[in-house]
């Protein structure tokens, strides 16, 4: 088995600062090396083909992996380097794995000239496409199962959005490609789906009745949570993460660094992504691991329509820190109406 492996060092760099995308940022994401390490710690020991420098080679130096550097890639890479790397890799490997987000998935899929499976190791901000594993560890498990003949090759959508419109709160998603990927168990993330929140008023009323004046509330993105903010008299960006003290808006469009400097009691109000089931780690990276460690599972309030919950089998969590992921595992009583709940368990990440 021969595996292609490439990295977009800039993927996800906008997430912690609330940018909702990284396509126009030329800042390396400092979390990329840790995500690569998490993948390689469990990845199968097969032959890997990697681009030069930070696009792959640096992560294999000094390891016991069997790898070969291809004639493509560089440290200060662009999407053209990704495309050039894929054009070489597709002729010599059985599957291409890549570290990045939806933009990287588009570049990888667009460069293919034959039906070759691709698998995303999640490191972007949006990741609406259906080619991503839930976590780096899950990607390693899927690849191992593929090597052993225990994974399925399936078709998946590569989706992306206009980031400028996305930041303005306009969610316009486009289908760019349908490609082959590999799947095992529930470790591959489905594509995002949109659902209406028919009982948003009842959910909003119940949450507002529970809110305390001396508690900070971090309001995540999405229609259901924004309905709560609208009921309080505020109109914020549909995709922003906002900070309230009691029922009063303190700051719209907060960053991870805003949150880690807060003192006082803190709770988080979130709604899972339809179809995917992600509660944490997709589109709300401002709520990072240090914040969530402080909040704990009991401090997370989950809201959703019943229709959306029926589209997911479990809640997915990818904080960026596997230890924090474990702390947040369990069953959440999701608010689906006024004093009405549906229990939903979290997915296993391995």
From TrEMBL:
GO terms for biological process: NADP+ biosynthetic process. One of its GO terms (molecular function) is NAD+ kinase activity. Keywords: Kinase, Transferase. SUPFAM superfamilies: NAD kinase/diacylglycerol kinase-like. It holds the Pfam family NAD_kinase_C. This is ATP-NAD kinase. It comes from Candidatus Aramenus sulfurataquae.
């Amino acid at each position: 088995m021969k595996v292609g492996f490439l990295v977009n060092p800039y993927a996800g760099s906008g997430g912690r600062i609330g940018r909702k995308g990284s396509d126009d940022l030329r800042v390396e994401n400092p979390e990329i090396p840790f995500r690569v390490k998490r993948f390689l710690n469990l990845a199968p020991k097969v032959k890997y083909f990697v681009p030069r420098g930070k696009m792959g080679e640096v992560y294999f130096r000094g390891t016991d992996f069997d790898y070969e550097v291809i004639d493509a890639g560089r440290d200060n890479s662009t999407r053209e380097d990704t495309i050039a790397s894929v054009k070489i890799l597709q002729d010599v490997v059985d599957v291409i794995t890549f570290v990045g987000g939806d933009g990287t998935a588009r570049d990888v899929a667009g460069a293919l000239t034959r039906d070759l499976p691709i698998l995303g190791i999640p490191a972007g901000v949006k990741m609406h496409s259906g080619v991503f594993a839930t976590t780096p560890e899950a990607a390693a498990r899927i690849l191992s199962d593929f090597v052993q003949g225990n994974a399925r090759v399936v078709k998946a959508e590569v989706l992306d959005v206009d980031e400028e419109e996305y930041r303005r709160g306009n969610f316009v998603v486009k289908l760019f490609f349908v490609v082959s990927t590999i799947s095992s168990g529930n470790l591959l993330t489905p594509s995002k789906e949109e659902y209406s929140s028919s009982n948003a008023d009842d959910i909003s009323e119940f949450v507002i009745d529970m809110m305390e004046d001396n508690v900070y509330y971090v309001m995540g993105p999405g229609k259901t949570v924004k309905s709560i903010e609208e009921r309080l008299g505020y109109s914020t960006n549909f995709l922003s993460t906002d900070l309230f003290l009691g029922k009063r808006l303190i700051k719209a469009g907060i960053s991870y660094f805003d949150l880690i400097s807060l003192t006082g009691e803190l709770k988080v109000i979130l709604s899972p992504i339809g179809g995917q089931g992600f509660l944490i780690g997709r589109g709300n990276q401002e709520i990072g691991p240090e914040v969530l460690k402080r909040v704990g599972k009991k401090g997370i309030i989950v809201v959703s329509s019943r229709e959306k919950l029926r589209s997911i089998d479990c809640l997915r969590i990818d904080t960026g820190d596997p230890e924090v992921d474990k702390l947040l595992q369990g069953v959440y009583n999701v608010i689906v109406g006024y004093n009405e709940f549906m229990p939903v368990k979290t997915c296993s990440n391995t």
